Amino acid sequence: MTTHHKTFLAPPSLPAMGLGALWPSSGWHAEQGFPEFSFIWRDYRISRQALDVLQRLAGRNDDVTTERLLLLAPHVTGFRLTLAMLMHPRWPIPIWRALQLRNRMIRHGDVKVAFPSDLIARAIAWRVHGKGIELDVHARLLQGADCPWESITTFYYRGRFTPLFSRGAADGAPSASPVVDPALPPVAHWTVEGGQRLRFTRLTGDTNPLHLLDAYARRAGFAAASAHPQRIAAQCLGHLAPTQAPPRQLDLWLKGPVYYGRAVTLRQAAGDDGDDFALWVDGDERPAMVGVMR
């Protein structure tokens, strides 16, 4: 199994990531699996400006919303470190075959804004099944001696891979999402605005043109360009009903694209472990995003 450790002293360069993604992939070999990579971003910071962007998307800047967004912010602004790993020339499967499937974000303490930190990303588990591979990437935020936040992002590579096996514990969001009744009265209804697409791309490092260009998305078979899932998550967190305590865990299931310019409806219900919510693009029977906020 290939090992590789890389340290960034500045945000991973988007052009360099793009060049890495163009390098021919070695292909999947079960005996090698995914590389034992450890990517570290030194002096990583959640900037005040990035939090302001998320607050504007959420439509609220009260204390309750800010606490929710601090659970999401490291996933947004640190996502490019995960992408740098998945776009590395030694990664066995090309990035364009990867689909972000589920997220689990956990707060263990106070997440400090504009604080010099270390962000660490590594692949911790994968499962090969009949229709593809699920990969779990673990990210940890270190602020001084504390680890106030961590996440597990599950990606999916569609295709036929053999043999069928699993490696590592599946500690991310479970494969099955909660079911939110579509007959519930909505807690919010809005139209997904499509401005500042490039600015949000710079925040996440996700330069997929499906999130930027309507013409490109239509040629690829989609109705239009779709918003980054993290952008939609911020809007959901701003529209959910207030809770008494700050959330400590957020699980998300990404089930379909949310196109710019489309109206969406958010519903919320009390679940076994917290507040369940789901977002529907108007006219669709299936929700595009489901979440649990604990």
Short description:
The protein has helices at residues 14-22, 48-58, 63-77, 79-86, 197-204, 214-219, 229-239, and strands at 3-8, 36-44, 98-107, 117-129, 132-143, 146-158, 166-167, 188-191, 249-254, 263-270, 275-281, 289-293.
State the fourth-level CATH superfamily.
Hotdog Thioesterase
Distance between the termini: 37 Å
- Rg to the nearest angstrom? 18 Å
**Fraction of residues in H or I helices:** 10-25%
* Tally of helical runs: 7
Shape: globular
Number of domains: 1
- The secondary-structure element order is EHEHHHEEEEEEHHHEEEE
Major beta-sheet overview: 12 strands, mixed
Number of extended strands: 12
CATH architecture classification name: Roll
Question: What does this protein structure show overall?
Answer:
The chain has about 290 residues and is of the alpha+beta class. It has one domain (about 5-25, about 35-294): Thiol Ester Dehydrase, Chain A (Roll), CATH 3.10.129.10. The chain contains 7 helices and 12 strands. The chain has helices at about 15-20, 50-60, 65-75, 80-85, 195-205, 215-220, 230-240; strands spanning about 5-10, 35-45, 100-105, 115-130, 130-145, 145-160, 165, 190, 250-255, 265-270, 275-280, 290-294. Strands 1, 2, 3, 4, 5, 6, 7, 8, 9, 10, 11 and 12 form a 12-stranded mixed sheet that branches. α2 packs across α3 (about 65-75) and α2 packs across α7 (about 230-240). It is globular, with a radius of gyration of 18 Å.
Could you name the key traits of this structure?
single chain; 294 residues; alpha+beta; 12-stranded mixed sheet; 7 helices; 12 strands; globular; Acyl dehydratase; HotDog_dom_sf
